């Protein structure tokens, strides 16, 4: 049984302890990984330790099983992956155009439209004129702020029209392009179908407030 009363702050304290002291060999997880801040933790051990912060006593490994721990964390909105279903392969996989569901050709077309230097230049010039900066539409990153002169004038263009609707003939308009940093651009294309920029923005914002 996992007793009621373990709160987010207790889970966070448990993770801090693990970061500091490590995971005893006997508490490493076999099937499940609790993902937190880009790292993986054994769900059962995290909950056992969190109980210590909540009630004063660490739970023993026999008090509940791994499936309970998984469900407990998932029901509270945390990500727990099962190594057996290949989820980890997805996480560590290299991203390339071959994983793009809409097809290699469509992806290449999308990229070529983004690289069309004349329209991209116009979009950047228009943005500079309007706002005086070239910061990422999603996370606000500004290459000039970070890299000084080297980053001056650098930002990537992302074509917002869904890849499936693109063909070789349609002309790109300035309004079709979002200006994004390289990280956000990769994330937009990381899933099987291209993510909408508002969707990624939401993720960035919610993550920023949760850590
Ligand atoms: Zn960004
Ligand atoms: Zn793109």
Walk me through this protein's architecture:
The protein has 211 residues and is mostly helical. It has 2 domains: 8-92, no CATH class; 97-210, no CATH class. The chain is 45% helix and 9% strand. The protein has a 3-stranded antiparallel sheet with strand order 2-1-3. One zinc ion (ZN) binds at residues 110, 114, 158-159, 185, 188-189. It comes from Pseudoalteromonas ulvae. InterPro entries: HNH, HNH_nuc. Residues 136-190 form the HNH domain.
* Overall pLDDT score: 85
Q: Based on CA inertia axes, which overall geometry fits? A: elongated
Tally of contiguous helical segments: 9
What percent strand? Answer: 5-15%
Distance between the termini: 28 Å
Largest sheet, in brief, is: 3 strands, antiparallel
- Succession of helices and strands: HEEHHEHHHHEEHH
Uncertain regions spanning at least 5 consecutive residues: 89-94
Helix content: 40-55%
The number of distinct β-strands equals: 5
What is the radius of gyration? Answer: 22 Å
Class of secondary structure makeup: mainly alpha
Please state how the strands of the largest beta sheet are arranged side by side. 2-1-3
Number of domains: 2
Ligands in the structure? zinc ion
Protein name: HNH domain-containing protein
Pfam families: HNH (PF01844)
InterPro entries: HNH (IPR002711), HNH_nuc (IPR003615)
GO molecular function: endonuclease activity; nucleic acid binding; zinc ion binding
């Amino acid at each position: 049984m996992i007793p009621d009363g373990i709160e987010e702050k207790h889970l966070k304290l448990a993770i801090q302890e693990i970061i500091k002291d490590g995971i005893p060999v006997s508490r490493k997880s076999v099937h499940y990984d609790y993902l937190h801040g880009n790292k993986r933790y054994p769900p059962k051990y995290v909950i056992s330790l969190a109980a210590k912060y909540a009630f004063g006593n660490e739970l023993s490994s026999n008090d509940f099983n791994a499936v309970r721990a998984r469900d407990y964390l998932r029901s509270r909105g945390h990500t727990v992956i099962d190594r057996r279903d290949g989820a980890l392969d997805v996480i560590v996989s290299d991203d390339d155009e071959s994983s793009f569901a809409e097809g290699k050709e469509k992806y290449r077309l999308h990229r070529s439209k983004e690289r069309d230097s004349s329209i991209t230049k116009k979009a950047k010039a228009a943005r500079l004129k309007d706002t005086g900066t070239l910061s990422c539409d999603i996370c606000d990153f500004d290459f000039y702020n970070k890299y000084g002169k080297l980053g001056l004038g650098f930002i990537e263009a992302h074509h917002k029209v869904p890849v499936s609707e693109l063909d070789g003939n349609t002309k790109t308009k300035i309004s079709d392009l979002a200006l994004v940093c390289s990280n956000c651009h990769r994330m937009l294309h990381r899933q099987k179908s291209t993510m909408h920029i508002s969707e990624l923005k939401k993720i960035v914002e919610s993550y920023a407030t949760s850590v």
